[in-house]
Write a structure and sequence with these properties.
Layout: H1 2-15, E1 24-32, E2 43-47, E3 50-55, E4 60-64, E5 71-75, E6 80-86, E7 89-94, E8 99-103, E9 110-114, E10 122-124, E11 129-133, E12 138-143, E13 148-153, E14 164-167, E15 170-174, E16 180-185, E17 191-195, E18 200-205, E19 211-215, E20 219-223, E21 229-234, E22 246-247, E23 253-257, E24 262-267, E25 270-275, E26 281-286, E27 291-296, E28 301-308, E29 312-320, E30 326-333
Antiparallel strand pairs: 1-28, 2-3, 3-4, 4-5, 6-7, 7-8, 8-9, 10-11, 11-12, 12-13, 14-15, 15-16, 16-17, 18-19, 19-20, 20-21, 22-23, 23-24, 24-25, 26-27, 27-28, 29-30
């Protein structure tokens, strides 16, 4: 009887890991749009029913309703590139006009704010939107609601998208050589430099004020705020990450790869990835409810992916009630908090 009881306990403990669902990356849907051959370059998600697209070939942005296919075009005084939905407004970088456009999504009224150079990259925070002006070179914090610059720092910022990220009141910037990362004190404007050793082209915030960065050698690295390399993860061979690199609320990183038609998540040093058939993802963005949206340049469509990490069983134990009855306990951690 004792042998049988021990076997039951062992089997119960062995079965516990099997009841944990695997990390789930799912393609939810594709929404085709009819734009007479024009392809949007950037996307911003207001809600699951309202998506904004940049159309530089027309000097327009388009409000696209995925469920109905309806579209509303808004003309702009410049070529739209990167676009954000930020605190009830649509903010668009106008690459040939040295300005940003601020659109009221209800009335479609357009206001513009001029800078000394073209805006290339934008990164939203609770205090405003960080903008890069590499031609000057400067990085500025802009308030769309107040229509003014809150902070400006003279930094040799790289030209490109996905080159800045704020993490716990520190601003990480890829330096113009692409071989160094700058950690800027937002209060004083002073900065420290981390020499990557090889070129890096995208950054995303990491926990405790750190940063994730993608290198041209195919690695995802994590640097702490005291400038120490603490993690280095090899991405699948042939991975070229489409800008921007995205982070989740539970400190994982999500990337999209156009050459490999894939989307992946890096968590706890492991890479989970799925292929999306012929879908060719470009310029992804984070949407509501753990969704990630992207432009599919192959299908002329908008793709939607959901990524959800299930609870993790950390420890487990078995309590014997009688010779035939046992009670199994488990300590579960839900990193997403849902």
């Amino acid at each position: 009887m004792r042998v049988a009881a021990k076997l039951i306990i062992i089997l119960a403990l062995l079965l516990i890991p099997t009841i944990q669902p695997a990390m789930s990356i799912k393609v939810l849907d594709f929404y085709s749009f009819q734009l007479r051959g024009d392809l949007p370059t950037h996307i911003a998600v207001e809600s699951q029913e309202r998506v904004w697209l940049s159309l530089p070939s027309r000097m327009e942005v388009v409000l696209f309703m995925p469920k109905t296919g309806e579209m509303i075009a808004v003309s702009l005084p410049g070529l739209p590139s990167k676009i954000l939905y930020y605190e009830g407004a649509v903010v668009v970088a106008l690459t040939n006009a040295k300005s940003v456009a601020i659109i009221d999504p209800k009335t479609f009224e357009v206001k513009t704010f001029e800078f000394e150079a073209n805006v290339v990259d934008m990164y939203p925070t609770k205090d405003g939107i960080w903008l890069t002006l590499p031609d000057i070179p400067q990085v500025v914090l802009f308030s769309p609601s107040e229509m003014r610059v809150l902070k400006e720092f003279n930094l040799n910022v790289a030209t490109g998208e996905g080159v800045i990220a704020e993490s716990d009141s520190g601003l990480w910037v890829i330096e113009k050589s692409y071989r160094s990362l700058l950690l800027v004190d937002i209060t004083s404007g002073s900065f420290k430099t981390y020499e990557v050793g090889n070129q890096t082209y995208l950054v995303a915030p990491a926990k405790d004020g750190g940063v994730w960065a993608v290198t041209v050698e195919g690695y995802l690295i994590r640097i702490t705020r005291d400038l120490k390399l603490v993690e280095k993860v090899a991405l699948p061979a042939g991975t070229v990450v489409a800008p921007p690199l995205l982070s989740t609320d539970y400190d994982s990183v999500v990337y999209f790869c156009r050459p490999r038609n894939s989307v992946g998540e890096v968590f706890d040093g492991k890479v989970e990835e799925i292929r999306m058939g012929l879908a060719s993802p470009w310029h992804p963005t984070k949407g509501p409810n753990n969704t990630f949206w992207f432009i599919d340049i192959t299908k002329n469509a908008i793709g939607v992916v959901t990524i959800s990490r299930p609870p993790t069983i950390r420890t487990a134990w078995v309590e014997k009630l009688s010779d035939k009855d046992f009670r199994v306990f488990a300590e579960v951690e839900d990193r997403e908090g849902d």
